[in-house]
Each structure stands twice: as structure tokens, then as C-alpha cells.
Amino acid sequence: MKATTAGFLSSLATLAAAAQSERTFAVLRFDGDGFMTEGRVDPIVSPGTAASHFHGIMGGSSFGTTVDGDQLLSSSCTNAKIKNDRSNYWAPEVYFRDPNNGTFTKVPLFYMNVYYFFEPTDDDIEAFPVGLKMFTGDAKTRDPPAFGGGSNLDPDAGPIQNIQFTCPRSSYDPPSYPTDSDGTTAGMQDPQNKGAGAGFPLYPCDGYASPLRADIHFPSCYNPDAGLDDYKNNMAWPTITNFKQNCPSGWIHVPHIFFELYWNTPMFDDLWTPDGKTQPFVLSNGDATGYSLHGDFIAGWDLPTLQTIIDTCNAGDIGMDKCPNIPGGLNDDNDCKISSPIVEILSLNAALTALPGDNPLTGWSFGGSSDSGSSASSSSATGYATASVDQSSTSASSSAQETTYAVSLANLDGKKGEAASTQPTAALPTEAAVSAVANNAGYNTVVIDGTGIPVSTVWDIVTATETQTVWVEETAPAKRQEKHAGHIARHRRSGHFHH
């Protein structure tokens, strides 16, 4: 058996070296449970301040409100399975809106994968330059994609549609999306895949070990003239000629990365009744359609390590960690977590009366659209409060109408920070809470940079004479299914490998 395994692993390098005209790929997975950190942080779109909405972040621990140059290489830990990958990967989180009382509960991450595709090309595929910042998607849109419900990564075949949701179901009768939907009142079906489409599906995803999945493809042509930080202009999609994907002359062909975020939506199945018209999930920016799904990436790879993987490995779905002779080896840290650099008094798991950042619901039956995108925080925070906290202690206060706890500042000098507790702290309102609580008109936010030093404080304190705290019981988590069971088979059935 050992000889067979060794022979198989050694063949990965041979296969990759011989497959210059074919796609090769390897799936990066992550250690531990959940995100490396989470919060209203986006150093690409909202550097140095609070982002408008909540994100879940994977990767290196030197993440903060600003990430510059080779900062990520100094991370003291990473939750990527490859030790020399200290990149950061993030996307907006998903919330369940209770149809009975309108409260919001964050949907736990089931797991996340990042595919590294090395496409057939006449170019040399090179490792990401350290510090490259990439953003894909549109956080502001509530409009249906022009391409419809399908996926399209070829700029010559029509409008790019690189964002989808996948929802494996035991039966597609009724279908996940209304037949002939134009996207204005519900999502649109992928004509090639019953289990996928644009926007949130209308029925529970009950496929085995495969709940609702957010799918995000990134372009793979980097323009060095635009530079590492110009995320609006530094990336483009390759053109396809004779089955090869090539970048413009003078551009750098980097790996094509693809996020899969599996959300534990089945734990909410008993809390809503599908009616074929509405569904209860929303993105953290208030988007009830799902059309504004987006993703961010900052490169923090050791260059020789990634280049070795590009040149020698075709591990596929068995995982990048099975690639032979990886420089630096595999990660042995299963508990790489830091506290969010944005300090908010906010329960991660309990029901909230408003989304973090006080983002209103928009899209479909809620109408309108959001113009906040990923910009800095607003001046209003109905339903929750955010507190300023010094680095040595956590000051407790509570807002009206929600379960809260105080989140301590993370030490982000390249070392691990204290992970935020997932259990609410049931404390009586204090005198400080009465004088500092926000009552629909303001909140405080402390922002710290990568050194752990406060760089910006937004103050808008309203004096209250009375505070009422209403405790909301947490939803009991569902029994966790085996994460990767049937993973390869699901992709083959869905046609994923035909992208």
C-alpha cells in the first residue's frame, strides 16, 4: 500500500509537467474550524477604516485594515494547509433573516476551498507577485447579471458571469429558480446545471454534505503597469483561442483562483417554509438577491513555493497538500485565529435586530439598491452598538434589543491575537452603557492597523437615560456533516470542470 501511494504521489509531478496543453489544478484547503478572522474589514476597498459590511477572512495572521507590500509574509501563522501561503482570501458573510421576527443570525461557514487552476496557455504561468490585490464582483449591484443564470469566463462569448450560487438538492421538482425568470423578482437558473444559478435559490439545499455554496472566479491576467494596489484596473480575463487562454502582451499570466464557500444553511431549514416566491438568506451588505456576491484576495505566497506548485503539481481534488516536494512543507498549526481589527460589541452567533453596519435590506421584494458598497461605516447603527476599547482591557456595554458581547482588540503585529468568543456575555447594563449606548443615531468604532496601534476613531456618542437589554436565545447548531464527503462526484455531476 505504501508503494502504491508513493507511486501515485510521484506521478502528480510527472502528469503536471506533461500536461502543458491541458488544464491542471490543485485545491487549497484550510485548517481549523471557521474563518481565520471576521468583521467589517476590507484593506483593499476600505483601507484604514471600517468597511460597510461583514467579511469572513482566511489565510495569514498579519491581516488588518491596511495590508501593504510584503506585510503578509511576516504572518506568524496561517490557516492555509500550505505553510508558505500567507495570502488572505475573503468574501461577504451570509445571514439568515427570520421571517417571523425579522432578526438576523449569521450562517456559520461549513468550509471553504480555493481552487488553483493552471489553464492551457501559450503564456508562462507565474506566481502572484507578493502584495497583489484582487477584487471581483460588484458589492453595489442588485441587478440580475446580463449573461443570465449561467457561468461565463470568456470575454468573447458575452458578458462575464463569474459569480454563482450552487445548491445541490435531493430533487429539483420544483426547480430552485422560477422557470423563465428574468432575475427581477427571483434568481435565474443555470441552463447547464439544475443545481446552480444567479442569486439565492428559493428552496433548501439538502444535498448530502453540500449546503448552499457561493462560487467566485477571479481573472488571471495581471497588468504590471497598473500596479499591485489598483484593484479596479490591474486584472483582466484571458482570451480563448484554439482552446488556450492567453493574456495580452506585456501582462503576466497568474493562476486562475476560484473560491468555494459552503454555508451551513441546513441548520435553519426548520425556521422557514419555502413558498417558491421568497427565501430568507441575505448577504452581509443587505443584498437579498445575492447578485452582489464578491471576493477579495491579497497575495502572500512565498514565490518559489507557488511556482513549484504551478510547474509540478496536478493534485486536483485530492488537495494541494498532496503535491510532492512542496517547499516549506505543510502547516502544523490548526488554530490560527486573530481578533478582528474592527472592534464591535456584537454577538457573532446570536440574533441581531440589524446587520452589522446597519445595512438596509435591498433587492427583489425589498426594492431599491445599496450605494454603500464597501465604503466606510455610516453614521447610524440601528439595532447594535460598537464600542471603543483600549488594548489592555475590554469595556462592556450593551445595546438595546440584542445579545451582545465585547470583542477585544487583536494584537496584529504578526502574532496571534485573542480569538473572539462565540458565546454571548450576559451582563447587566452598566453606567457606561447608559451614557455611551447608541440609540439609532450613532456608534463608536476603533480601527487598528497592522501594528496594533489605533489609527482612527469615529465618534458619535448619544447620551441615553435608559437602556433595555433583551436576550435572544441562539439557534442550536445542526450536527456537522463530514465536510468533503462526495466532493469530487458533486463537481462532476454539476459540470464544474467544464468551465
From TrEMBL:
Residue spans of biased composition, Basic residues class = 486-499
Highest taxon, organism lineage: Eukaryota
The annotated regions of Low complexity compositional bias extend over 171-185
DUF1996 domain span: 42-301
Arranged from A to Z, the UniProt key words for this protein are: Signal
Q: Which Pfam families match?
A: DUF1996 (PF09362)
Q: Where is the signal peptide?
A: 1-18
> Which intervals of the chain are annotated as region Disordered?
171-193, 478-499
What name appears for this protein in its UniProt entry? DUF1996 domain-containing protein
Which species is this record about?
Pestalotiopsis fici (strain W106-1 / CGMCC3.15140)
